[in-house]
Design brief:
The complex is a heterodimer of chains A (216) and B (260). Chain A has helices at 44-52, 84-94, 101-111, 126-138, 156-169, 182-188, 206-214, and strands at residues 2-13, 16-28, 34-38, 59-64, 144-148, 174-178, 191-196, 199-203. By secondary structure, chain A is α/β, with parallel strands linked by helices. The longest helix of chain A is centred in the last third of the chain and has 14 residues, at 156-169. With 260 residues, chain B is mostly helical. The chains are: A alpha/beta (216), B mainly alpha (260). At the A-B interface, helix 2 of A face helix 1 of B.
């Protein structure tokens, strides 16, 4: 269970604090795959970052007893001058895994980027980078995977592979997905959070959430 | 995934950043990791040649190249590099903040440790080189040199951390520090001993904590040299104040600082 208790978040701007959320209360169940919906600037990515623990609420707290992945967005945290393999090693090490050979091979295999794996990440195309990022996160056993617009990229074959990999993980983990692509949301999620007017609503049904979202 | 204690997470993260720091720094160069040592080594050799080749041995207690190395090496690698690395930690480590395990403090620690390791490696290489050529470069009192170097390193790391936190409020801090780095090199008694400075100037120069560090290292390196003003207590006071301020500002501000 991931629980948000009275979470407020604002960003200081020169016009004073700009509030994204005020006193948000939310429970995200462990057994649902949740989509986060909302218009641009509604705070979807911010919510994901808060859950991922790389941004912090201005007040309130976020309680979780799960291993949550880093928010998987295009090109997060990878060092451009380092090769794919070196980046994988780095991510392994900060997650406390010393024997990195297995994950290295898994990522090389899964990402389908071939010998680019031994080249600096800075030279990857955006498609390759998203494949690589997705593959790295699949190398770890998280309880919850956070994904920020990552499933929309990549070619059809790779998207199918992603879906299969997520299916395989489904027994032990769930995903929280930010996406604008309804097809992706319908495919991967069975619950939704709608962010609108500084408030948050949890929907048990994706269809109803999408219906509301389209009529905002 | 297994549960880890906060301390073991920090240990893992510092190790990971340390390795990343070492690997990434020269990965684009033809000679790769050799530059890690080669760059400071060349810098040392050039400065030692410029200032040490005077060859007159005017200070009586050491051969000029060794005299320059003894103080320029710690000043350059422990003070300048460590301080600058910590100062730049925030802007260069932004990408790392995408992982929840990584805290800015770990970046400071890893970078400072990497610089300390480089200092030891380059120092050993230089000393061995000098010895091979026929000088007598070994420190007379190794423990004293190491102790003074350690305090200097702590001071540099704390100062850099404090400056980094300050520069997140006012970017100008980086510019000011860039400007004073060069003059500091010349007023910190790196290329001359304090015994060569007239009494009236000595009082002024000794306000600078770096002078004390440099003089302490010199005293340890050359047994016959006795500094007229080196005061470990003064340097330690500065270090403690700097470190306390750095820790306090970090603790109060780290969330604001890493917010994008």
């Amino acid at each position: 269970m991931i629980r948000l208790e009275n979470v407020s978040k604002y960003f200081p701007t020169r016009y004073g604090p700009k509030y994204i959320f005020r006193n948000l209360n939310l429970r995200i169940p462990d057994d649902r795959d949740v989509a986060i919906l909302g218009q641009n600037g509604a705070g979807k990515s911010t919510l994901l970052r808060l859950i991922g623990g790389i941004d912090f609420p201005s007040s309130g707290r976020i309680v979780s007893d799960r291993f949550v992945s880093w928010p998987l967005a295009l090109g997060t945290g990878f060092h451009r001058a380092m090769t794919g393999r070196e980046n994988v090693r780095f991510v392994c090490r900060i997650h406390g895994i010393r024997d990195t050979a297995d994950i290295e091979e898994f990522v090389k295999d899964f990402s389908e980027i071939g010998e680019n794996f031994e080249l600096p990440v800075g030279g990857y195309s955006s498609g390759m980078r998203s494949k690589f990022g997705f593959a790295v996160s699949m190398g770890f056993d998280f309880d919850t995977y956070l994904m920020d617009e990552i499933l929309a990229v990549g070619d059809a074959a790779f998207r199918r592979k992603c879906r299969d990999a997520l299916m395989a993980k489904r027994e032990s983990s769930n995903i929280i997905l930010v996406s604008h692509v309804e097809e992706n949301i319908r495919e991967h999620c069975n619950a939704a959070i709608l962010l609108a007017y500084g408030r948050v609503e949890f929907y048990e049904s994706v269809e109803r959430a999408l219906y509301r979202y389209q009529r905002l | 995934m297994r549960k880890r204690s906060a301390l073991s997470i920090q240990k893992d993260v510092i190790f990971a950043i340390f390795v990343r720091e070492i690997v990434s720094r020269f990965s684009g160069y033809a000679f790769g990791a050799v530059w890690l040592v080669l760059e400071p080594l060349m810098m040392m050799i050039i400065f030692i040649m410029i200032f040490g080749a005077r060859g007159r041995g005017e200070f009586g207690f050491a051969e000029p190249p060794v005299f320059i190395m003894a103080t320029f090496l710690p000043f350059r690698m422990l003070w300048q590099s460590t301080m600058r690395k910590n100062l730049g930690a925030l802007s260069e480590a932004r990408g790392l903040m995408g992982f929840r395990q990584v805290r800015l403090f770990d970046v400071f620690m890893a970078r400072a440790l990497a610089e300390a390791g480089l200092f030891c490696a380059v120092g050993l290489l230089l000393i061995t080189g000098f010895w091979w050529v026929g000088f007598d470069p070994w420190p007379d009192n190794v423990l004293e040199v190491l102790a003074a170097s350690f305090i200097l390193w702590l001071f540099a790391a704390s100062f850099g951390m404090l400056a980094c936190m300050a520069s997140s409020v006012a970017k100008e801090v980086e510019k000011v520090i860039g400007i004073i780095t060069m003059p500091l090199l010349f007023i910190s008694a790196v290329f001359f001993p304090m015994t060569a400075v007239p009494e009236s100037y000595m009082t002024w120069l000794s306000w600078n904590p770096l002078v004390h560090a440099v003089e302490m290292i010199r005293e340890g390196w050359f047994e016959t040299y006795v500094s007229p003003m080196a005061d470990p207590g003064y340097l330690i006071d500065w270090t403690i104040v700097c470190m306390a301020l750095a820790m306090a500002t970090y603790r109060l501000n780290w969330r604001r600082v890493i917010a994008t």
